[in-house]
Every structure is written in C-alpha cells, then in structure tokens.
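Researcher: Here's a chain I'd like modeled. Treat it as a single chain, no partners, no ligands.
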Amino acid sequence: MALKSTLKKSLVALTAVGMLSSLSACGLGGDSSASSDQSSDTVNIGVLYPKTGQYAEYGKMFQQGLDLAVEKVNKDGGVQGKKLGLKYFDTQSDPKQSASVAPKIASDSSIVAVVGDYSSGSSMAASPTFQQAGLVHYGFNNSAADFTSTGDHVWTPQYSQDDFQAQTADMVAENAKKISVVYIENDWGKAAYAAFEKEAKAKGLDIAYSSSFLADSTDLSPILIPARDAKPDAIVHIGYGPDGALVVNTLRDKLGYTGPFYGGQITNEYISTSGKNGEGTLLMAPFTADSTNSNAKQFVKDFRAKYGTDPGEFNETSYAAIIDLAYGMNKTSATRDGVQQALKTVKDFPCYVGTKTSFSFNQKTRRMKNTNFLKLELKDGKFQIIQ
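Model: Modeled as a single isolated chain. Structure tokens:
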C-alpha cells in the first residue's frame, strides 16, 4: 500500500543517518564495564547489547540480570576458583555494529564465551566470527528459527518462534474462531507470523485479515481499521512492546475496538504506555515474577532485593545465561573449550522458566529441550498467570 511504501522510504533514510551518527558515537569499540577485569585470575564473558539506540530499554534490563548473576556466581565461589567478569559492547542491536565489534571480542583471550545480542539479526551478524574463533556464542534472547545454523559453537536456551507461536495460536484458538493479525515488518516478524499462521490454520482458526507494519510507524490506523472491520473474535499482535502499545492504544482509543487483544510484551514500557488500554492483554510467556518454579522464586527474591522491583522476562533470560555458563564451566573448565564441552554434556542446567527446574540441550538444534509456556493476562498493571 502507499502508506507502507512511503514509510519504507523514510525508514531507509532515517536508518542511514542514524547509523552514521551511532557509529561515530560508539566507535564500534564497546564500552568498559566495572564488572570486567583483565587479570589472569578473572574469566570474562563478552556481552553484545543495546546500551543506546531504539532498543536501549532492553539493554538496561539485560544489564540488570547480567550484573546480578555475576554477583551471585562470585559470591558462590566464581568459576573454577576464578572471579567471573563481564565485558560489555554497545551494538545498539544493529547488525553492522555487532559484526564490526566481533573480531575485537574474538581476539580477546580473556573472553571465554559471548552472550547477546537483543535481536537475532544482530546476533547472527556476529556469530560467524565467533564460530571461526571457537568461541561459544550464547544467544540467550535469540528465537529466530535459524539462529543456531551458523555452526556448532552457536547455542541458545531460547525457545524457537515455531514453538512459541504454535502455543500462542493454540491459546487464541481456545477462545476465538475468526481473528485479525498484525505483525512487525522485519525478518523476525515475518517468520513469527508464518509460524503462527501455520498452527492457526491447523487449529481451524480463520484469519480474516492480516497485515504487517513498519517498526517506526506512528499511525497504525490504516491497517487497524480493516482489522477491526473484519469483525474478528480477537485481534492478535506479533511484535515488541512499544509497537504493541501503539496497536492496543489505537484500537481502544481511536477505533472503538473492545474485543480480546493478544500480544504486547512483558515489559514495564508496554504496561505503562498502554495504560488502561492494556488491561486484559493476553499472551504466552516462559516467565513471570509470580512463577511457582523454585529457581525462579529465588531469582525474583534476589532481584527485588537489589533493584526494588519485580523482574521481567528479559531480566530473567540474561540472568539465567550467566548462571548457565558458570554452572557449565564449573563442571568442565573455565576455558573456551570448557564452555563448549559443558553445553554438549551437562544434563542439569538450572531452569527458571515454565515449571521445570533443570534442563539440557537438544544437541541437534542446540536449543533448550521442551520449553513450556505460561498463559498470562494483564490485570491491575501486572501480568498474572491464568489457567
């Protein structure tokens, strides 16, 4: 449509300008962290994350989880008697920046593994360099179906979008027969929608209307009006927190839609930006602060003690990534080879998601085995587990 064409042209221009300014600001050199250390009695993990840029909110959540995990590991004795440190590299979750900084990380002999980035695209731009260096790339937030395809040193405890969207479609099908779907226009969004569509059709759901939208869109009325006018039993959003809030606010405030809304994201930004319109939002997620998982309960307690608030899913995934790697190294050795060997052989990594308290990796996909998700509803400003 004409709107999408115009927005695409604007996006290209803005991206080019933003990339030049961000490259200048970051210098592609990363940023020093107080938790990093060059001494021989310290083992470091490299971190790709968006400290700045449009995904900075996620970078902040990642750093909270990562820093808390390092504190716990070192309090419990470190890894093989050595202190654990982190070396942070601000990529803005931009593929060009992550690819550019990857050689610097790979050549740093004190770094035994890498975690991050926020987006699968940014992570995958750096993975080949780490693979060639024999350095494990642990993409704790990367759910793209082909994320681990780069090579045998690329791993993720993340569920695949195929699994997640299939369970989301199952949840929607429990209460709806006819739906409208809007999804973010990027590689991740298109793959996620394809997975959702496949399961939705298998469950007999009628997708009466579907449309993508650009990430920087500020007015989604042109695609949401026909979504509403299709008279669906529910509207489904596939994307991130900021755009999810824009979708539900437009539906409620401008278009008068009062039906069920599936989507959004478990972030404080989504909850605060959507406000009263977000109440009743339904979604699937692997973690919530109200989880009954014993590992998760202790994590929530520790997080509240340090930060004075409940953790979200992105705090949990980053925290668990460091715990995983440290646990593995304490079973093998605090080296690059030791990390790889641990991911291949350890069968009882601590689990913080769903109801399981331990997990191992599927050696073919290099992903966590059998992830189960929680059904959540936003009530009184908080996502709560529903049956």
